[in-house]
Amino acid sequence: MLEGLMAQVARIVILTGAGISAESGIDTFRSAGGLWEQHRVEDVATPEGFARNPDLVLNFYDMRRAALENVAPNPAHEALARLEREFAGELLLVTQNVDDLHERGGSRQVLHMHGELKSALCSACEMRSPWHATMIERPPCPVCLAPTLRPDVVWFGEMPYEMGRIYQALETCDLFVSIGTSGAVYPAAGFVQEARVAGARTLELNFEPSEGSRLFHETRLGPASMVVPQWVDEVLSRAAE
Ligand code: OAD
User: Fold this and answer.
1) pLDDT-derived band at 38, boundaries 50, 70, 90
2) Residue 31 binned pLDDT confidence (cut-offs 50, 70, 90)
3) Interval between CA 127 and ligand 1 midpoint (Å)
4) Cβ(28)–Cβ(34) below 8 Å
5) Residue 16 pairs with which residues in a beta bridge?
6) Which residue puts its alpha carbon closest to atom 37 of ligand 1?
7) Residue bearing the CA closest to ligand 1, atom 16
8) Which end of the chain has the least Cβ crowding within 10 Å, N or C?
């Protein structure tokens, strides 16, 4: 199986989820004690929740943004950055994560399909701006100056970013790799099927079997900090043969 998965790999699409940042100390969503046990999705991750209680929502994301200062990338983030530097083929790294650990681990090209904590979206002019401070005080938008900033995070019921580019890459990739995601949220959960229809091999790296495991050609179980560097070593050493 490994031979088949690694042979003739020229175009790779990688999807990461909360599991890749778990060992850095960021809570996942659906584990016991995870974020969706601590908070109701409809309160903090929907446009309706924001309209009902903006202070609650702004505070939730202000705290998550501040918490990024106390965490660091782990060997899984660093391995994917090494893959970006050393893999001679095409690589698209798509993350559902709103943290910045891929970038801090050294990745230069990261597509944040669910947005980013360190970005602000203006509800008035719709411009996205880099953002590192809190939003609870209703600071002005750096572009139009209206006090209408919201977290630049995709909420349930909203369209994720860059879907055209992602589907284009899925249609032409020969390997799709899903890392540390439960496969519970669409459209990301459907990427494996898109890749398979396009003829790609599919590999899942996860701590435990996920809802979507049966859809992959191969699943490797273990903590991301171990299985991701191992897989990257394999890809790079095979490419060097
Ligand atoms: P989940 O919390 O749903 O799933 C995390 C996955 O990571 C699970 O499959 C775990 O088994 C796995 N995992 C945990 N620790 C791991 C480790 N050390 N190494 C490898 N895997 C590990 O998080 P996501 O799948 O990312 O969306 O959630 C997808 C989306 O649902 C999020 O982007 C967010 C959420 O609602 C929005 O907010 C729009």
Assistant:
1) confident
2) confident
3) 28
4) yes
5) 95, 179
6) 155
7) 19
8) C
- Quick one: tokens of 122? 């203006």
**Could you report the per-residue pLDDT of 120-155, keeping only the tens digit for each?**
999 999 999 999 999 999 999 999 999 999 999 999
Contacts of 216 (CB under 8 A, 6+ apart): 178, 192, 202, 203, 204
pLDDT at 210: 87
The domains of the chain, with CATH numbers, are 6-26+73-114+160-240 (3.40.50.1220), 27-70+117-153 (3.30.1600.10)
CA of 30 to the centre of ligand 1 (A): 7
Tokens 């943004």 belong to 65
User: Which residue has 């918490």 as its token pair?
Assistant: 67
Checking if the pLDDT of 4 tops 70, the result is: no
pTM for the complete prediction? Answer: 0.96
